[in-house]
Amino acid sequence: MFDTMTMTKVLGGLCGTLLVFMLGGWAAELIYVGAGSHDEDHAQGYLVEVPEADTGPVEEVVEVTFEEAFAVADASAGEGVFRNCRSCHALAEGENGVGPHLYDVVGRDIDAVAGYNYSGALEEAADVWTPENLYAFLEDPQGWAPGTAMGYRGLPDPADRANLIAYLASNPGS
């Protein structure tokens, strides 16, 4: 079935294809790099000069204290923030989820929910969920109580934290 002519055609086709690819690479190098520019000092591409933009005065980041944030806290806005917590926590007393229920949590002992296995990290951090402790914990749970089982990354906005605490304090079991 295979004769000498068939093998010659197959070998010629492979050599022709290889030749086309080699010539294509050579032509692309001439077009994009340039002829005779294989030295190391030659930069490939074009340098576009961009004038430095005047960014103006740098705004200073103002740290908001707990007292300032809590003084203007809005419990109704905290209800919206609670959506972040709802997947793991419930507000009804005795309804533990992945995390303990948050019924009447403000002012409660940290390990007060019966039947919930708290991590030792929370118990070492503080005794009572005061508004200040909740504020610090909600900012960075792992930073406030290293080793805590809570995997949430925290609420970076001070207003969100204060609103959530106001909501939990005003609406313990809705």
From TrEMBL:
Upper classification of the organism: Bacteria, Pseudomonadati, Pseudomonadota, Alphaproteobacteria, Rhodobacterales
Residues covered by the Cytochrome c domain: 73-172
Keyword vocabulary terms for this entry: Electron transport, Heme, Iron, Metal-binding, Transport
InterPro entries named among the record's database cross-references: Cyt_c-like_dom, Cyt_c-like_dom_sf, Cyt_c_1A/1B
Pfam families for this protein: Cytochrom_C
Designated name of the protein: Cytochrome c family protein
UniProt organism field: Loktanella gaetbuli
Domain of life: Bacteria
Keyword Glycoprotein: no
